[in-house]
């Protein structure tokens, strides 16, 4: 949850409140659900707002300007595995601009393969196979060929991808692929891209209808705030996580929306009308405020994930160029804040004591992997 988006939400709610007399004063024109305790969590919304604005956001704002977090490697040409799609932005001002070689920090230029020491793939790597703890300073019948062919290496990679898929909740891009390109995230912020119409609706329809858990028979085909509590904690958490992600994307595009000045030049800024269209109770059959609440749920979920990953992240170097000298200290401050926050989502209550817990966990993984492939 980025601070300027929180400010925009408050701005949009103020606009909605000031125009309430024109649209009616009933509950359908009210965002009053954005208060109180976050669903399935032991934390209040105003507590999260205060913590984010004063503890997390200042650190994130400084980190996002550093080279380590600015330059992100991604395969923009990767085809969708589920349906044909041109994946083109509807507006030329919204297309993603990749980095030229000259615009990258020196350490990233010509970078083709990422080698992770002690990683799961390292045992199949050339470096690992060139190291030998045995004494080979003799000639004898015991000598063996310890090299590995490119064909065998590719086969080992295929095996490792299969092994990883059994544990990973998402599909990870191969950084050694020739199709991977660097993108400067400071020049390509999350904002309205013009990606709309049937293609965009198909993505979210597939996510919600085919990869989210559904209420039991008798509650209707769609998950709503009214039938969500009919599901178990695990299924509720899954839905809230996906809904919160969707909300984050929509809030960003409302906060950074494309318009034109009188001369036809592009201008980016908040669009309160678009925000109201996407989130007001009147326009969403009462669901909009609940979707915004799910954004707070995702915040707590991610905060807990940061706290759990802290022992690993504290050993990362976080270095791309001289610009990154202050990054380790800032990351440590962020992780300390995450670990000190007392109200994470209690994921230890999930997958416990239920007869079908293991099966449910496998369904979780399968759904998340599918969603990562769709997006």
Description:
The strands form two sheets. A two-stranded antiparallel sheet has the order 1-2. A two-stranded antiparallel ribbon has the order 3-4. About 11% of the residues have low confidence. The protein has a domain of 253 residues. A hairpin with a 5-residue loop joins strand 3 and strand 4. It has 375 residues and is mainly alpha-helical. Helix content is 44%, strand content 4%. Helix 8 runs antiparallel to helix 9. It contains twelve helices and four strands.
Any key phrases for this structure?
375 residues; two-stranded antiparallel ribbon; two-stranded antiparallel sheet; 12 helices; electron transport; 4% strand; 44% helix; disulfide bond; globular; mainly alpha
Write the layout of secondary structure elements.
Blueprint (H helix, E strand, L loop, with lengths): L2 H16 L1 H4 L21 H19 L3 H4 E4 L51 H5 L19 H16 L15 E4 L13 H13 L22 H23 L1 E4 L5 E4 L2 H8 L8 H26 L13 H14 L16 H18 L1
Antiparallel strand pairs: 1-2, 3-4
Helix pairs in contact: 1-8, 1-9, 3-11, 8-9, 8-10, 10-11
Strand content: under 5%
- The residue fraction in helices comes out at 40-55%
How much is the average pLDDT? 79
> What structural category arises from helix and sheet content?
mainly alpha
Report the sheet with the most strands, covering strand number, pairing sense and barrel closure. 2 strands, antiparallel
Shape: globular
Q: If helices are DSSP runs of H or I spanning 4 or more residues, what is the number of helices?
A: 12
Sketch the topology as an H/E string, one letter per element: HHHHEHHEHHEEHHHH
Q: Which oligomeric form is depicted?
A: single chain
Strand order of the largest sheet: 1-2
Terminal Cα separation, in Å?
20 Å
Number of strands: 4
Task: Please give the radius of gyration in angstroms.
Answer: 24 Å
Sequence stretches where pLDDT stays below 50 over 5 or more residues? 13-25, 112-138
Disulfide bonds: 89-94, 134-170
Protein name: Putative endoplasmic reticulum oxidoreductin-1-like protein
Cofactor: FAD
Subcellular location: Endoplasmic reticulum membrane
